[in-house]
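re: the backbone from monday

yeah here it is again, tokenized this time
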């Protein structure tokens, strides 16, 4: 992997909008979003540290009319309505302004867990059985696959929002109908394995597959965490981010991820997630997040650090790749990780 650097002249020339719910925040935790507010504040200060001329905005209305900017870093994904992750990319595409992430249609594909399971199966990547229930579609019916425990969640949820695990059908159906009533499509699948394993991918020299990672929960076999735990809204054991040292498992994760890349490339950064059964060694693809958390405490930054890439270097590399592939800039400086460390 190379670290990509944007020239000082381009940084001085370009006006960059940072669009995120807490882009104007102080860095204090939010009562509803918890540590996501800390993450957004860190991202804004990181962009400023890189040397960008940053314009911060926290509402979609900031791009209803064409803003006076050259490029947008979008972290405003959960807008409170179905498929909200596509709105900012669509508006900016209409204005002809380039942005970090992926095209609107790819963002929609990536955030639809049902469609990505179809894509994974098409590419020969194993997945669990599942059922999809769309708003206004067929009624919620008992799954046609065998199960002992069911996982029910919004089909486009992030950070485990709205996820529930159930041992009986009546409770599972009740939760599915509740999520549908909240305005979301629902996916139902059998609980599988003993933990999540993830593999981040970033744009640099083409797609770069970073080291495979996992979050481990002290004293727990499974690393299943609720939305409230992930956002630090409740007291819970502190998760431990660690590299997957098993070379066979890491190689399989990289192989499966590489098979799926043609479905969603080009994009600027993302995280491919799988469920792993520690006893049998089985892996099953779960979902992909093409606008995953870039906080310095999360998996993408943690995986990059294992290669000797700092958080600031990672963010600049991702944005440099994004700007270059979309024609915002026409050149970048490439620095080997070894040369960066020596300097």
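seq for it, each position gets an aa:
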């Amino acid at each position: 992997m190379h670290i990509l650097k944007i020239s000082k002249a381009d940084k001085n020339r370009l006006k960059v909008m940072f669009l995120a719910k807490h882009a104007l925040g102080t860095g204090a935790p939010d009562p509803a979003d918890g540590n996501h507010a800390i993450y957004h504040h860190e991202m804004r200060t990181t962009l400023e540290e890189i040397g960008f001329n940053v314009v911060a905005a926290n509402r979609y209305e900031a791009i209803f009319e064409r803003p006076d900017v050259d490029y947008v870093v979008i972290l405003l994904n959960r807008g409170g309505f179905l498929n909200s992750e596509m709105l900012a990319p669509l508006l900016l595409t209409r204005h002809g302004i380039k942005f970090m992430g992926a095209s609107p249609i790819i963002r929609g594909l990536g955030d639809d867990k049902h469609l990505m399971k179809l894509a994974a199966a098409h590419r020969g990547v194993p997945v669990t059985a599942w059922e999809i229930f769309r708003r206004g579609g067929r009624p919620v019916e008992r799954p046609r696959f065998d199960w002992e425990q069911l996982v029910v969640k919004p089909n486009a949820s992030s950070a485990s929002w709205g996820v529930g695990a159930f041992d009986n059908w009546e409770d599972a159906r009740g939760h599915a109908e509740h999520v549908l009533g909240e305005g979301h499509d629902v996916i139902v699948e059998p609980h599988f394995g003993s933990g999540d394993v993830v593999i981040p991918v970033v744009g640099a020299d083409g797609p770069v597959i970073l080291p495979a990672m996992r979050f481990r929960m002290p004293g727990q076999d499974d690393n299943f965490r609720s939305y409230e735990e992930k956002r630090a809204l409740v007291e819970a054991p502190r998760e431990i981010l660690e590299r997957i040292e098993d070379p066979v498992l890491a190689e399989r994760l990289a192989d499966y991820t590489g098979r799926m890349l043609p479905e969603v490339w080009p994009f600027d950064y993302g995280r491919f997630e799988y469920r792993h059964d520690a006893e049998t060694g089985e892996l099953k693809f779960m979902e992909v997040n093409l606008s995953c958390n870039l906080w310095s405490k999360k998996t993408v930054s943690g995986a990059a650090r294992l290669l000797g890439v700092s958080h600031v270097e990672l963010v600049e590399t991702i944005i440099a790749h994004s700007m270059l592939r979309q024609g915002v800039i026409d050149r970048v400086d490439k620095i080997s990780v070894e040369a960066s460390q020596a300097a």
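The longest helix spans residues 247-264. The CA atoms of residues 24 and 257 lie 35 Å apart.
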